[in-house]
TrEMBL record:
This is S-adenosylmethionine-dependent methyltransferase. One of its GO terms (biological process) is methylation. One of its GO terms (molecular function) is methyltransferase activity. InterPro entries: N5-glutamine_MTase, SAM-dependent_MTases_sf. SUPFAM superfamilies: S-adenosyl-L-methionine-dependent methyltransferases. GO terms for cellular component: mitochondrion. Keywords: Methyltransferase, Transferase. The keyword Glycoprotein does not apply. The keyword Methyltransferase applies. Signal peptide: none annotated. PANTHER family: HEMK METHYLTRANSFERASE, MTRF1L RELEASE FACTOR GLUTAMINE METHYLTRANSFERASE. It comes from Maudiozyma humilis (Sour dough yeast). The lineage of its organism: Eukaryota, Fungi, Dikarya, Ascomycota, Saccharomycotina. It comes from the Eukaryota.
């Protein structure tokens, strides 16, 4: 938390810039407040009415990314908007590691003839599947990539489409009726589909998988995973007030759905799910069939961050892929 803001600190801030004091309550330090002011002035100018409004919104704890309208994620510029969760560094860290492992292992599997099929559930801004597309499309262009992005929220679906267009304006096949600005044809081996779906409704999942035939090689998901009591007790008020509860609050539902539907109906060969607590990983570990190997990846803060697993009878070298991923 921010130290108490005495008049001396506020005067010192005001001597740097008249609106810097507005940024102090949300920032932990003066250095952080000055950094934010730099980002905001880059976007809105030095003393504009827009800058004043942006600083006033920050003083009411509106997240910086909703004010700036975007957030870097790997090499991508991900647009952010109210009602869709802002991507977090923890997710970026594992998603980038997964793409490194995919390039190293799947890129070497020359026998594979169909495009690699990767599906991201609970996609939000689309940051995970768009990063996979960006990082691996060169290495995996032969035999190709078939990437799916799924969310229940129409706002998330709309934003994923915008992020896809924004980051890949020219060279990727259009989902639905998106138009590339210059009508160039994307490489035919690359496909990116965006779909609105409630993954906890098994009849909707069955309809989707009947339409998109073929086993999914890698299923990724950053589901809502904060139990309600922790949401009330531990989550910062700026997150509680401004970010969508639909994106945050749940407990075991999405891990049960992984085990019962995606693994139980043999729809996937491997998965990576982000975690809120180790009990969620233990649930998956205890309930997968015996031919599944399951592990936990820790983030750079040494917190358990992902549960991952693969079918040991599947014909690809997932063992090596997940050894790299977990390291
Ligand atoms: C924690 S956010 C993750 C967003 C994004 N993948 C990321 O990492 O920034 C969870 C997402 O799950 C979506 N969601 C919640 N319930 C869902 C359901 N039953 N089916 C599909 N998506 C759901 C929410 O709309 C939200 O976008």
């Amino acid at each position: 938390m921010c130290p108490r803001l005495g008049p001396r600190v506020l005067r010192a801030a005001a001597s740097v810039h008249p609106w810097l004091p507005l940024l102090l309550p949300e920032c932990r330090t003066m250095a952080q407040a000055r950094q934010e002011l730099r980002w905001l002035t880059e976007q809105f100018g030095v003393r504009s009415a827009k800058l004043h409004r942006a600083c006033a919104l920050r003083s009411r704890h509106v997240p910086l990314q909703y004010i700036l309208g975007s957030q870097p994620f790997g090499d991508l510029d991900i647009k952010c908007r109210k009602d869709v969760l802002i991507p977090r560094w923890e997710t970026e860290e594992w998603a980038m590691r997964l793409t490194e492992a995919m390039k190293e292992v799947l890129g070497g599997e020359k026998k594979h003839t169909r495009p690699w099929k990767v599906t991201d559930l609970c996609t939000g801004t689309g940051c995970i599947p768009l990063t996979i597309l960006n990082e691996t499309r060169e290495t995996l262009k032969d035999p190709g990539l078939d990437i799916g992005a799924i969310d229940i929220s129409p706002n998330a679906i709309q934003l994923t489409q915008e992020n896809y267009k924004h980051n890949f304006p020219r060279d990727v096949r259009n989902p639905g009726n998106l138009q590339t600005p210059d009508n160039t044809q994307p490489p035919s081996s690359i496909n990116f589909n965006i779909q609105k779906l409630d993954i906890l409704d098994s009849s909707q999942v069955t309809k989707y998988t009947d339409k998109h035939l073929g086993v999914i090689n890698i299923l990724t998901c950053n589901p809502p995973y904060i139990p309600m009591q922790d949401f009330i007790k531990d989550v910062r008020s700026s997150v509680r007030v401004y970010e969508p509860k639909l994106a945050l609050v749940a407990d075991l539902e999405f891990y049960e759905n992984l085990v019962e539907v995606w693994i139980g109906q043999r729809l996937i060969e491997s998965f990576v799910y982000e975690l809120g607590n180790i009990e969620q990983a233990e649930y998956v570990q205890k309930n997968v069939p015996p031919n599944w190997n399951v592990g936990v990846r820790y983030d750079s803060d040494q917190r358990p961050r992902c549960v991952y697993g693969y079918d040991s009878t599947a014909p690809h070298n997932y063992k090596h892929l997940f050894e790299i991923f977990a390291s």
